[in-house]
Specification:
heterodimer; A: mainly alpha; 11 helices; 77% helix; 0% strand; B: 250 residues; alpha/beta; Rossmann fold; four-stranded antiparallel β-sheet; 10 strands
Chain lengths: 267, 250
Amino acid sequence: MKEVTVKPSRNNRFRTIARPFAGFWLPALIVIVWQWLSYAGVLNRTLAPSPYRVAIEFWDLLISGTLLHHLRISTIRAMAGFGLGAAVGLVLGVAVGFLRPVEKSIDPSFQMLRTIPHLAITPLFVLWFGIGETSKVLLIALGAFFPLYINTFLGIRSADKKLFEVTRVLNFSIWKQITRLIIPSALPNILLGVRLSMGVSWLGLVVAEMMGSSAGIGFMINDARQYSQTTVVYVGILIFAVVGKLSDSLVRLLERHWLKWRDNFQG
Amino acid sequence: MSDIQLQIDNLSKSFHTDKGSVQALHDVDLQVERGEFITIIGASGCGKSTLLKLVAGLDTDYEGSIELNGKPIPGPGINVGFVFQEPRLFPWLNVENNIAADLSVSKGDVRGRVNELLEIVRLTPFAKSYPKELSGGMSQRVAIARALLREPEILLLDEPFGALDAFTRAHLQEALLEIWHRKQRTMILVTHDLDEAVFLANKVVVMNSRPGTIRRIIPIDLPFPRKKNSESFQAYRRKVLGEFEQADEL
């Protein structure tokens, strides 16, 4: 009784080399074309400063410590908001996923709240919680809550009924059912929820910081706009893009590690 | 002299749906002795899988009685093992963790039993592999090992090789017989494959359809290992087939 498993081998040399850099080509090309257009004088220097000038500005802001100061405050806000929203979303998603009565009583309300745009609710938050940190963190938390809530709920409900039957014939305890069946099968959705929540947290951060603050990347952008320092605006946007991408990559790394058992189409 | 382990009397089971009720089993009587290998054969929809699920305690809504060692079965328990039609492995656990299921392989006694079972189902080199890397036959062997880990008194198998190709199926039938000889466990296997039913069993139970009743119980007095193309095997096969065809006409 001999059997051999054949592992899909994709030792294509080109792919192995090109893969880590594959995502860089497009932004790099855009920067080169942009720089060239600026150099040729096609672009307005104030509205679209050249990448080189943006880079210089970035360096200056970095050296003076301004950038890190704002980034630190923004990161703390985003993380606090994300932490709060994601934690509540996870707990409620699990509760709603597990217990039908809970789903029936609270899910419709959440689905209704979900459709309200951030910007519409901002004035209310300012009225309720003032213009301080509380309203900012809560606004971010509100945004971060929904993606994780919905995806956790979905993930728990996607657990295979047939595997449930297996846990019954093998006499799993409720605890083992949760840890060996429900959580692993919900994990792909939970991680997707985390990614989406983190993205929304950064978006919520900008809204929160632009509604009135004295520090943070959002403030930096807003402040620079008033003084027509376009390069600073670009640096701020760039920071958002890079930090957003980095945090997303971090979760994807976890995905790759924790979900290596998955047997889905990998493209 | 006979040691009755499983006693089923007047067992009936109906399913109630919106459209009315369907009787799946009617007045089934069956006695299984300790260490026997029983195969249950019947057309699809004859209630043979239902019978197995009732014995496993997965469904406790029935009339009549099912007694294991003289006691009714309250629900799923570790003294009854169950192998499903599909392997139903946990895709996020590797082979050894699938066999251990809710137990921890790092514990000494579990480790030892897992290793023994890996060797019995001949999957020792694949202990760390994930289900996605296994073939259908290998997956089903993991499922059998998993069911055997708690040393069940009875192993119930619900068309376990139905989805496999003929070669793999023949391999697994032999493997199952080897396990049966080694472990001396009672086995009840549901199948729709005539050869499989005769090849494995001490007794073949032929079932009628709609409602499911037991038509005949045919003892197979052939020594192991059996040869599927031998004259005596074919004689038994014809006998079972005869019953089977008559059952179908009803």
